[in-house]
Amino acid sequence: MNILLDTHILLWTLSNDPRLPEKARKLIEDDRNEIYYSIVSLWEVQIKHLAHPDAMPVSAETLKEYCEQSGFQKILVRDRHIFALADLKRKKDAPPHKDPFDRMLICQASVENMIFITHDSLIPGYDEPCIFGV
After folding, report:
1. Smaller CB count within 10 Å for the chain: N or C?
2. For the whole model, what pTM was predicted?
3. Where are the alpha helices (DSSP H) in 15-128?
4. Distance from C-alpha of 13 to C-alpha of 17, rounded to nearest angstrom
5. 2-133: what fold?
6. Distance of alpha carbon 125 from its chain centroid, rounded?
7. How far is CA 83 from CA 17, 25, 110, in A?
8. pLDDT at 72
9. What are the pLDDT digits (tens) for 30-48?
10. pLDDT tier, 114 (very low <50, low <70, confident <90, very high otherwise)
C-alpha cells in the first residue's frame, strides 16, 4: 500500500514522538507499505520554521534529510494535483477547514491512489476515501 503522511504524522514518525498513534505506527513500520512525504510538507515546515523557529525547530532541508535517511519516497506537486482542488468538497455537516497545505496533501493522495494518514480531526470532513484518520 502507498501511504502519504500528513506533515504532523511525518514529524512525529521521524522524532519517535509518543503522540504518534499506534495504528499509524503499525502501518508506517509495515514493510509491505511504501511511505511517502510530500514537497508540500517541506514547504509547510519551512514557512513555520522561519516564522516560529522555537515552535518548529526543524527546517525543510533537515526534514528532507531525515526522510531520505528513513527511506521515505518524495512526491512532487503535479498539475493534476492542483486541478483536483476544484473537486475537493467537504461534507455538508463538516466544520470549516481552510488549511491549504492539508487540501493539497489530500489531493495528492487521492490522485495518486494513496492512503493519507492524518491525526487532524477536521480532515475526515472531506469526502475522500483516501483519508485515514488515526
Report:
1. N
2. 0.95
3. 22-29, 39-51, 60-69, 79-84, 100-111
4. 6
5. Rossmann fold (3.40.50)
6. 16
7. 34, 31, 12
8. 98
9. 999 999 999 999 999 999 9
10. very high
Grid cell in block for residue 61: 532541508
Query: Per mean pLDDT, which range of 67-71, 95-99, 106-110 is the poorest?
Result: 95-99
21 CA to centre of own chain: 15
- Ranges of each domain in the chain: 2-133
- pLDDT at residue 19 in the model: 97
Residue 32: how many CB atoms within 10 A of its CB?
6
Pairwise CA distance, residues 48 & 61, whole Å: 13
- Helices 39-51 and 7-14: crossing angle in degrees, nearest 10, is 80
pLDDT, residue 41, reads 98
pLDDT, averaged across the chain? 97
Please enumerate in sequence order all residues whose Cβ is within 8 A of that of 38, keeping only pairs 6 or more positions apart, or say none: 4, 74, 75, 77, 104, 105, 108
Q: Please, how many CA atoms are within 13 Å of residue 43, restricted to the half-sphere of its CB?
A: 12
DSSP 3-state of 61: helix
For residue 84, give the C-alpha cell. 483536483
